[in-house]
Specification:
This protein is of the alpha/beta class. It is 65% helix and 13% strand. The chain has six helices and five strands. Helix 1 crosses helix 2, helix 3 packs antiparallel against helix 4 and helix 5 packs parallel to helix 6. The longest helix is centred in the middle third of the chain and has 89 residues. The protein is rod-shaped and about 170 Å long.
Length: 250
């Protein structure tokens, strides 16, 4: 082994203990090797700078994320608001279309009812002049009452032995409705004049006496009510209607 190697081995063996025990030697070694590595103060300063840079980067990144989050939240709020507006418009549009459909259906129904009423008026003229059977016209009016109110219009044919109605014994024909405990006596005719109105009132009173029951209402349904007959009806408390569809309640 050469002297240099022996010296190197001795330094490696003895130097750590010498540095620990000899402050001057330790200071000298530090001074000699100072340029080869950073001292503690510079190391801590550089580390602090790195930490500061990392903290600033993190804060900047957090700020950017918060800003982006606010933008997303604002965009979501705008979309939600727009969706609410669209939903409101859709509901309003549906409601308007529904009302329009209902109104159209109502108008269609009214037109059809008026058309049928017009047809019945023409039929009344035909029945009056013998071109159509009175019974057919009566059945049409009765059918409307039954359809609109879910009732049964009964045609009764009673015999008047005493001649109370016509002054001599004869058949008495009436239409009656028994509905919700009420008795309604009806006259369903294509036309009625003053004498016919008096005759109906007598027929109704005959039916009441024979069956011992007071009628709740007396109704005459005819598209052709003579003005003089109308006055008689008002005086006798008889309700008059030009068509069955004009009867709103029973």
């Amino acid at each position: 082994m050469t002297k240099e190697e022996e010296l190197k081995q001795a330094i490696l063996r003895d130097l750590p203990a010498l540095l620990r025990s000899d402050p001057e030697l330790r200071a000298w070694v530090l001074a000699v090797t100072n340029e080869a590595y950073a001292d503690r103060q510079r190391t801590e300063s550089r580390f602090d700078r790195l930490l500061d840079e990392l903290r600033r980067d993190r804060e900047e990144q957090s700020r950017k994320w918060e800003e982006q989050s606010r933008k997303w939240e604002e965009q979501n709020r705008k979309w939600e608001e727009q969706n609410r507006k669209w939903e409101t418009l859709r509901i309003e549009s549906d409601r308007r279309w529904e009302k329009a459909d209902q109104r159209f259906e109502q108008l269609h129904q009214e037109i059809m009812e008026q058309a049928k009423k017009h047809d019945r008026s023409i039929g009344a003229l035909g029945a009056r002049w013998g071109m159509q059977a009175e019974s057919t016209f009566r059945n049409a009016l009765a059918g409307i009452l039954e359809e609109n109110f879910g009732v049964n219009v009964r045609h009764v044919d009673e015999y008047d032995d005493e001649g109370e109605v016509f002054g001599r014994p004869d058949q008495v024909e009436l239409d009656i409705i028994i509905y919700d405990g009420q008795l309604l006596i009806c006259e369903l005719k294509s036309s009625i004049d003053k004498a016919g109105m008096y005759s109906f009132e007598r027929k109704a009173r005959f039916y009441e006496r024979k069956h011992g029951r007071k009628a709740t209402r007396l109704l005459v349904i005819s598209p052709m009510v003579d003005p003089r007959a109308q006055k008689v009806a008002e005086r006798l408390g008889i309700e008059t209607y030009s068509d069955s569809i004009d009867v709103k309640t029973l």
